């Protein structure tokens, strides 16, 4: 179990998939004991698979848990993670987030010189592009 602020990530290996419901109940009990509440309607499940294995092995995913939505992508600390561990969706999200900033710098530079525009570009666009790049 990994916690960050009010988010909790429960990672269960495939060999223990049958324990998902019990593990979720344990997290809910822990939350209640610590004066918190687990909102099962906001709880999502993502199953990570290797794209090759999914096509070749025809692995059937486990049945859905009650009140838990199954998703194919999940945003964790600003990084979009897909069920196939592909970075395509994350790169698309970052490019879309940078596009308005680039347009604003190109159209409305308010008479700023090249040096000032480069500083703003590095502070706004390059930081978004490099965030979590090492991961």
Can you give a write-up of this model?
The protein is α+β, with helices and mostly antiparallel strands. The protein folds into two domains: 2-80, no CATH class; 88-130, no CATH class. The protein has helices at residues 20-33, 51-57, 88-107, 114-130; strands spanning 2-4, 7-9, 44-46, 69-71, 73-76, 79-82.
What layout of secondary structure does this protein have?
Layout: E1 2-4, E2 7-9, H1 20-33, E3 44-46, H2 51-57, E4 69-71, E5 73-76, E6 79-82, H3 88-107, H4 114-130
Parallel strand pairs: 3-4
Antiparallel strand pairs: 1-2, 5-6
Helix pairs in contact: 3-4
Q: What percent of the residues sit in helical stretches (DSSP H or I)?
A: 40-55%
The H/E string reads EEHEHEEEHH
Low-confidence stretches: none
Number of strands: 6
How would the global form be characterised? elongated
Number of domains: 2
Report the mean per-residue pLDDT as an integer. Answer: 81
The secondary structure category is: alpha+beta
Radius of gyration, Cα only, in angstroms? 20 Å
Terminal Cα separation, in Å?
Answer: 19 Å
Biggest beta sheet summary: 2 strands, antiparallel
Strand content: 5-15%
Q: What count of helical segments does DSSP give? A: 4
Q: What strand order characterises the main sheet?
A: 1-2
